[in-house]
Amino acid sequence: MNTFDIITNEKDEVLDITDKINEILKKSKESNGTIVLNVLHTTCGLTTADLDPGTDKDILEALRKMLPKISYRHPHDPSHTDDHILSSIVGTSLALFFENKKLMLGTWQRVILIELNGPRERAIAYSIF
């Protein structure tokens, strides 16, 4: 298994990692197949999205508004329990097809890391099949 790191700069942030993944695929011995990605943290997530201007902020605002205001019971730091819950909702892994050493994505589709408890250095593990 291989890994790469992404540095985040804000508490809540959407980072486009599509180009980084395509760089990895260009160096791969495989031309066609699947890349499986897994972020090795519990307060961020991976997904795909259209990143027209402002969409990143819309995603973050919608996620934050999804959760009710309750008294969280997370023992070591209740102040970031919502970050853990949102990470679980978004998900921490993706499997994506690639062809000719490039991700197969829709016209506007980008691969994004959603940071929910930054700034941090995030490790993403991947395997290519």
Detailed description of the structure:
The protein is an alpha+beta fold and 129 residues long. The protein has a single domain, classed as Sandwich (Jelly Rolls). It contains 3 helices and 8 strands; from the N terminus they run ββαββααββββ. It has a 5-stranded antiparallel sheet, covered by helices on one side. Strands 2-7-4 form a 3-stranded antiparallel sheet. A hairpin with a 2-residue loop joins strand 5 and strand 6 (102-103).
CATH architectural group: Sandwich
**Residues in β-strands, percent:** 35-45%
Strand segment count: 8
CATH superfamily: YjbQ-like
Number of helices: 3
Mean pLDDT: 94
Topology:
Elements: E1 2-7, E2 13-16, H1 18-27, E3 33-39, E4 44-50, H2 55-66, H3 81-90, E5 93-99, E6 102-103, E7 109-115, E8 121-128
Antiparallel strand pairs: 1-8, 2-7, 3-5, 3-8, 4-7, 5-6
In brief:
By secondary structure, the chain is of the alpha+beta class. Helix content is 25%, strand content 37%. β5 and β6 (102-103) form a beta hairpin.
Top keywords for this entry?
3 helices, three-stranded antiparallel β-sheet, alpha+beta, 129 residues, Jelly Rolls
